[in-house]
Amino acid sequence: MLGIELYDEIVLRSRVFVRDDRPTILALNFIHARALAVLPELLDAGPMPKFRHVLYRERTGREITADPERRSARLASANELTEFGIDVPSEVAVPVLVLHTLFRDDEGPLELWEDVYRPGMEQVES
Fold first, then answer.
1. H/E segment holding residue 29
2. Burial of 84 from C-beta contacts in 10 A (0-12 / 13-18 / 19+)
3. What is the model's pTM?
4. What is the Cα–Cα distance from 48 to 63, expressed in whole angstroms?
5. DSSP 40
6. Is the pLDDT at 43 greater than 90, yes or no?
7. Is 92 exposed, middle or buried (0-12, 13-18, 19+ CB in 10 A)?
8. CA-only gyration radius of the chain, Å
9. Where does the pLDDT of residue 2 fall: very low under 50, low under 70, confident under 90, or very high at 90 and above?
10. What Cα–Cα distance (Å) separates residue 11 from each residue in 62, 91, 114?
11. For the chain, which domains are there?
12. Whole-Å CA distances, 43 to 26, 28, 86, 94
């Protein structure tokens, strides 16, 4: 989706969304390495001073647009269950909703978001 080859480096950033004191969404952002030339602070831990798409536009003049969202379901990994604080026997299959959004500029794919929703959660349109 990002137009990279096997073993190419990417930037991986993660966030956890919490509601009512429990994790509801595990978010991974896979960012093409070409973004580092414009946003070197992607390698810093913690939040950025502004949303990175805004900074990218300010620094390059290029707009980032989103492709249509893709939704699917799959079984949660052991790590995801741990992150959600869900304790089930290893032989129990736990389905999760997964949302993928690909962002691009005029040079091609730039960033892929993967949001994994807590079992039982639904995506709410805002």
1. strand 22-32
2. buried
3. 0.86
4. 18
5. G
6. yes
7. exposed
8. 16
9. confident
10. 20, 33, 14
11. 10-117 (3.40.1410.10)
12. 19, 14, 30, 33
Token pair recorded at residue 88 = 């089930």
Structure tokens, 126: 């805002």
Is 101 a residue whose pLDDT tops 90? yes
* Amino acid in position 12: L
Residue with tokens 């091609």: 108
Q: How many residues does the chain have?
A: 126
Structure tokens at 11: 């930037």
Tokens 């480096």 label which residue?
A: 9
Q: Which two tokens stand for residue 92?
A: 């129990």
Query: Which pair of tokens denotes residue 70?
Result: 């893709």
85: its two tokens? 């604080």
